[in-house]
Specification:
Keywords: Aminotransferase, DNA-binding, Pyridoxal phosphate, Transcription, Transcription regulation, Transferase. It comes from Herbaspirillum robiniae. InterPro entries: Aminotransferase_I/II_large (IPR004839), HTH_trans_reg/aminotransferase (IPR051446), PyrdxlP-dep_Trfase (IPR015424), PyrdxlP-dep_Trfase_major (IPR015421), Tscrpt_reg_HTH_GntR (IPR000524), WH-like_DNA-bd_sf (IPR036388), WH_DNA-bd_sf (IPR036390). The protein is an alpha/beta fold. The chain folds into three domains: about 60 residues, Winged helix-like DNA-binding domain superfamily/Winged helix DNA-binding domain (Arc Repressor Mutant, subunit A); about 130 residues, Aspartate Aminotransferase, domain 1, CATH 3.90.1150; about 220 residues, Type I PLP-dependent aspartate aminotransferase-like (Major domain) (Aspartate Aminotransferase, domain 2, 3-Layer(aba) Sandwich). About 45% of the residues lie in helices and about 15% in strands. It contains 17 helices and 17 strands. The strands form five sheets. A seven-stranded mixed β-sheet has the order 5-13-12-11-10-6-7, with helices on both faces. The protein has a three-stranded antiparallel β-sheet with strand order 1-3-2. Strand 11, helix 12 and strand 12 form a beta-alpha-beta unit. The longest helix is centred in the last third of the chain and has 24 residues. It is globular and about 75 Å long.
Amino acid sequence: MGRGSIALEWVSEFTADGGPRYLQIVGFMEQAISDELLKPGDRLPPQRLLAERLGVDLTTVTRAYTEARRRNLLEARGAAGTFIAAPRVDLTQVIDLSMNIPPPPAGIDLDDLLRQGVSQVLMHSDVDLLMTYHLGGGSSADRAAGAMWLHAMLGALDEERVLACSGAQSALAALILSQTQPGEAILAEPLTYPGLLTAAAQLGRHVVAVDIDGDGMRPDLLETLARRHRARLVYLNPTLQNPTTHTMPAARRIEIASMAEKLDLRLIEDDPYWLFSPNAPKPLAHYAPRHVFYVSTLSKCLLPGLRTAYVVTPEGMPQDEVLGALRSFVLMSTPLMTSLTTQWIHDGTAASLLEGIRTEAWARQELAHRTLGDAGLAQSGGIHIWKALPAHWRGADFVQKARAEGLNVVSHEAFRTATGDTPGAPAHIRISLGRSRSRFELVNALRRLAELAQRRRQREVVV
């Protein structure tokens, strides 16, 4: 397509479940830009012409163009028309590919959703109660909402086992505090969630790495190290693991659950990504319900700002110690946000929001694989990817160079336990896909990362 010619090839068909039509139009643009059907300088049709082509009213197209300009996809040139914008060059802007948050939901107007949700909460709640202290663990309605949300993972639950908490990090710290003593070891995989490492260090515990094979943590080594260190607590993130994206198969989960029962261990199953995996095995909590604390945060699959996570305590275990530890970090969950979460789960909004986020997350995974290629890229379906670096890169060096060029990523060193060093292992980076405001911005950032690696390689060949 010549620059300045009117582009129409990108126009697609609306879908019944694709959300508001103006957002679907923006989605058509983003997809076409990502696929390079639309390039900077391509002219878009006048709004009336596009409205006729799509069979919608002019207001819908005007709203779509306005939203696309807000996302820096388009630029207006007066009488000349509307054109695909060149990537914005902003030397002060850093594109954050380091923070694991869910992407903007496809086909959903989040502004409208928030306004309607808060309005419903205020309509059905006593404002005074929303602004005062609450008991930890959530109200009966909050616990019931948690049981509803977790039904896909764990089936029918006794709501009394469900605690509503202010985020998974505070829940994790409370579990460490209540289930271990200062100086004790916590067992985890060699690469693990940095929040575990931070909480353990702050609370005077230490993390010991249990080696893995192709299926995940090895049960035989779990037994050996649990006995050697007299460890009582094990941390696992078995589905779309952070950072490796590995999913532990069902057979290994059964072996780990059996070992927990044999040694009377307590497992923390941190499971924020289960809903992103179309074929995820049953959680460990299904196989060892009397030994597993199951933690599921909404920060990774809905919105971080909801500040809501659910903890399912083991069958038959009193919750007093966990609640007491939790209150020492966070006296209570924020009532307004917890009530909004409860409202959305009960009225089905949370399920709709999840579908929009999963649709966008899967589309971004596909874009990442197309842009970076499959070499050195782990297969996954969540909100981050795990990419092996060329042999001449150290992870810390690549991260530093990328940051200098306005791209934030995280290297494998940030996830490594002190006892989990593997000399000679290839360097990796975790690339988070959700923080970018649009697919357009994400693809540009991924191309810059790929070019950075290639440029370094060429420079070394010349030398």
